[in-house]
Write a structure and sequence with these properties.
By secondary structure, the protein is an all-alpha fold. 72% of the residues lie in helices and 1% in strands. A two-stranded antiparallel sheet has the order 1-2.
Length: 334
């Protein structure tokens, strides 16, 4: 096991290196640049205002070639301070995700400040999704081709086909039109009002969790049907074991490995969904932070947040792989 973990960690190094290149370059392909964003904002407040593009680019460190910017970002080249002229190594290799182009604050500090909100949204969404998917998927498999099975499959198909951003907008718009009610848009800290905080996250996490539940429910039903046809399950039935013992003790555990894989693959979906849900429901998490940075072409924030998300997904996949031997003793890593 130790050898396997070391090998996986070493394989992450070239993967993360490739990710740094992709994340750094792709954001540069977005139409427009940071100076265009500044000009657009100034034009809305003071029409006719001109911006000295060369000065702005120099102050933000964007007046050098892309490969030099990349070297500074990962920390192999020194980054000069535009005001003092002093240079220092400050990049990924030094544990820094960079500094914002506006405000010059460290990005990792802002990520840590906003991360609990995104974690809360994601964890609640996954819990809600599992509370829906596992019971419905198991029951649909045990009662195959019954009305409950058909209803569960229909709801799953609808959940897969319904975009969560559309559902979130509908929840914001129609209750306000019909009943004059809309979800709270004011941030309620958990330390001040735990119930109010959970209530604020309940609707966006339920929308996101419902979308996650559809795929998990289908996989749960499929794997349960496969396991229930195995010889050892028929043996358990023939020994006179009750339905609960056969299903829960024997079938569910052996069907969990592919289900756990599906749950692990939902982490990127939670990350993408958090951007949408936080924007619709005005939650100041990492998703909203990323979207605001995209609108202002704040390259270091976009690159830093994406790199953080990518690292989380990679380590999430490693943790899921390490869980497999505990679910199935036949799985061994060398």
């Amino acid at each position: 096991m130790r050898t396997y973990i070391i090998r996986r960690l070493l394989l992450m190094i070239p993967t993360l290196l490739l990710l740094t290149i992709l994340v750094f370059l792709l954001v540069r392909f977005i139409p427009g640049d940071v100076v265009d964003a500044i000009e657009a904002q100034l034009e809305s407040f003071s029409p006719g205002t001109e911006v000295d593009r060369e000065v702005v680019m120099r102050l933000m460190g964007l007046d050098v070639p892309v490969h030099v910017q990349y070297g500074r970002w990962i920390g192999v080249l020194p980054t000069p301070d535009p005001l003092t002229g002093e240079s220092e190594f400050r990049g990924l290799l030094q544990g820094s995700l960079g500094r914002s182009l506006f405000g010059h604050f460290p990005i990792e500090a802002e990520i840590l400040r906003r991360l609990p909100l995104t974690i809360e949204l994601g964890v609640m969404a996954i819990i809600i999704g599992l509370l829906i998917a596992l019971p419905v998927g198991i029951y649909s498999a045990v009662r195959q081709d019954t009305a409950v099975d058909y209803a569960g499959r229909t709801v799953a198909v609808i959940g897969l086909a319904t975009p969560n951003f559309w559902l979130g907008i509908m929840v914001m718009v129609f209750p306000a039109i019909w009943w004059g009610w809309s979800p709270s848009m004011k941030m309620i800290p958990f330390t001040e009002d735990p119930l109010g905080n959970l209530g604020m996250f309940l609707i966006p996490s339920a929308i996101l969790g419902t979308a996650l539940a559809a795929g998990t429910m289908r996989m749960t039903r499929t794997m349960m049907l496969e396991v229930l046809r195995q010889d050892y399950i028929r043996t358990a039935w023939s020994k006179g074991l009750g339905e609960r013992a056969v299903v829960i003790r024997h079938a569910v555990k052996n069907a969990l490995i592919p289900i756990v894989t599906v749950i692990a693959l939902q982490v990127p979906l939670v990350v993408g969904g958090s951007v949408i849900m936080e924007s619709i429901f005005n939650l100041p998490g990492l998703g909203r932070f990323l979207l605001d940075a995209l609108n202002t072409r704040n390259y270091p924030i976009v690159s830093g947040v994406n790199m953080f998300f990518a690292s989380v997904v990679l380590f999430n996949n490693l943790v899921i792989d390490l869980i497999y031997p505990y679910l199935d003793p036949r799985v061994r890593y060398k």
